[in-house]
Every structure is written in structure tokens, then in C-alpha cells.
Q: What sequence folds into this?
């Protein structure tokens, strides 16, 4: 029985790869894919369901006397393969990343042998032993429902902060006046009112975006992140307004956690809405 490695044409889903001519087609139409990305795809198609090590790819694509940024070049090649296949690294249908080790073609394939036009079924990939890895953070990607849920909880927390401060603005002014009497307290109150007023619709937007799983939320959040970071860092000092009640140590600890929280928000968004990168 002909093996996938000896096949001339390999089919998977709506795609067809001609290993002899170096062409990739989708529903019969040729898809533009450069030589090196196609070689990466071909190596995986020759061994479907098996891990192809990064070193194997390096040896095939770049001889030892070639001076090149191997990691960047390989990542770029795999990224182009994924783009051509419409694949996503965080939830792959074709190319699975094995963290820091290599890649595996996980979709079922069919191969036409060189000596026969009969279609040969190639076993599908074995059950995944490794969780998908985020292409940038290099950590296993958790269930998207978990990351989106945690992100929504953070937004609800900030929304509660804003509403509480706006409803009790006189108390905020009184506490601020104890630390910075006069214009200082007024400036703090104005900052609280302005950022709270802006923050309420912003948090509602983020809650609805994550709740309804808006697929462009990742891009939107990255654009909004500088403003979100500035607001969150400002509100991080809020626990010191309650220092007399909760103690200076507790206020300091709460502020330290809140200072890091916007970066946690960004990580959760990047995990839930990973880009198509290797």
C-alpha cells in the first residue's frame, strides 16, 4: 500500500497539495504559497499525525552553512501555511504547535500514489497529547470560556468601582481632603468623576464584547489598551482612600494587585483571541 511519503498528491478537506509541483489548491483553485512554506507543509503531510521537529525542518530548509534567523524564518513559514489554510494556532484544524519542539499535521489526509490513481486513506492524527500553545505567549491555551469569563469578572469589578465612587462622590471628596486638602482633593474628585464617567460605557462595551464573543474584540482591545492602562493605573491608588479603614498594609497590597491587573486583562484577551501566528 502506498505511503503518504511516496504520494504525489495529498488531499485534506477542501485542499489538495501536489508535492511534485509544489502547488496547493483549494476546491481546484491554486493558492499562492511560497516555496519554503510549501516545503514545511509537505514535510508534515509526509508524516501526518507525527511531530516534525523544528531541527528537521531546519535541516531540510536551511543548510548548516546558511546564516539566517532560523526561529523567525520558520515561524514566518508556518504562519504563511496557516494563512493559506485559514488555520488558527490557538484552535488548529490542520497544523498543531508542539511547544518549542515542532509541529504536527492533525487533519485526516488522503494520498494518491505515484503508481496508481487510487485514493489511499492515511490514518488521522492520534489524539492530541499536548494542549495548543499560544503563538506569542508560549503557554498552553486554556478554554476560551474560562479566559472570557475571567475578563468579564474584571470588567464587572471596575464597573462596580465606578458606580460606587459616583454614587458616593461626597465621601470620596471627604477622604481625599484628608490626604490633600483644598485643590488637591478637588483634583482627585474631578479625576474620579471624569474617568468613572468614561469608564462605565467602556466597561459595558468590553463586557458585551466578551459576552457575545465579538471576534474583533482582541484588535479593539489592543487599540484601547493605552487608555485602559492609564485609567486602571489611576484607579489603582483608590485603596489608599480607604487606608484608615483597611490599614496601610492592606491598601498597599491591593494597589500592587490593581497596578498589574490591566496587564492581566491584556493577557486574557490575547489568550481568548489569539492571532493566526505559529
A:
Amino acid at each position: 500500500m502506498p505511503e503518504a511519503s511516496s504520494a504525489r498528491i495529498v488531499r485534506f478537506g477542501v485542499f489538495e497539495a501536489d508535492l511534485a509541483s509544489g502547488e496547493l489548491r483549494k476546491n481546484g483553485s491554486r493558492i499562492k504559497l511560497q516555496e519554503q512554506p510549501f516545503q514545511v507543509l509537505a514535510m508534515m503531510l509526509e508524516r501526518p499525525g507525527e511531530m516534525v521537529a523544528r531541527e528537521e525542518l531546519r535541516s531540510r530548509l536551511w543548510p548548516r552553512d546558511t546564516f539566517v534567523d532560523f526561529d523567525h524564518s520558520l515561524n514566518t513559514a508556518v504562519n504563511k501555511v496557516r494563512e493559506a489554510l485559514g488555520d488558527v494556532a490557538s484552535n488548529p484544524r490542520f497544523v498543531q504547535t508542539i511547544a518549542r519542539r515542532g509541529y504536527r499535521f492533525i487533519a485526516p489526509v488522503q494520498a494518491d500514489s505515484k503508481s496508481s490513481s487510487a485514493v489511499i486513506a492515511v490514518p488521522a492524527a492520534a489524539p492530541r497529547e499536548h494542549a495548543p500553545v499560544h503563538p506569542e505567549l508560549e503557554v498552553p491555551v486554556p478554554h476560551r470560556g474560562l479566559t472570557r469569563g475571567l475578563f468579564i469578572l474584571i470588567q464587572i469589578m471596575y464597573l462596580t468601582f465606578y458606580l460606587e465612587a459616583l454614587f458616593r462622590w461626597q465621601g470620596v471628596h471627604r477622604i481625599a481632603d484628608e490626604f490633600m486638602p483644598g485643590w488637591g482633593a478637588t483634583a482627585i474628585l474631578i479625576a474620579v468623576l471624569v474617568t468613572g464617567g468614561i469608564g462605565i460605557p467602556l466597561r459595558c462595551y468590553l463586557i458585551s464584547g466578551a459576552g457575545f464573543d465579538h471576534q474583533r474584540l482582541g484588535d479593539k482591545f489592543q487599540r484601547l489598551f493605552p487608555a485602559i492602562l492609564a485609567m486602571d493605573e489611576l484607579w489603582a491608588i483608590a485603596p489608599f482612600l480607604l487606608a484608615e479603614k483597611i490599614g496601610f498594609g492592606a491598601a498597599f497590597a491591593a494597589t500592587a494587585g490593581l497596578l498589574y491587573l490591566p496587564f492581566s486583562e491584556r493577557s486574557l484577551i490575547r489568550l481568548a483571541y489569539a492571532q493566526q501566528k505559529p
Summary: The longest strand covers residues 7-12.
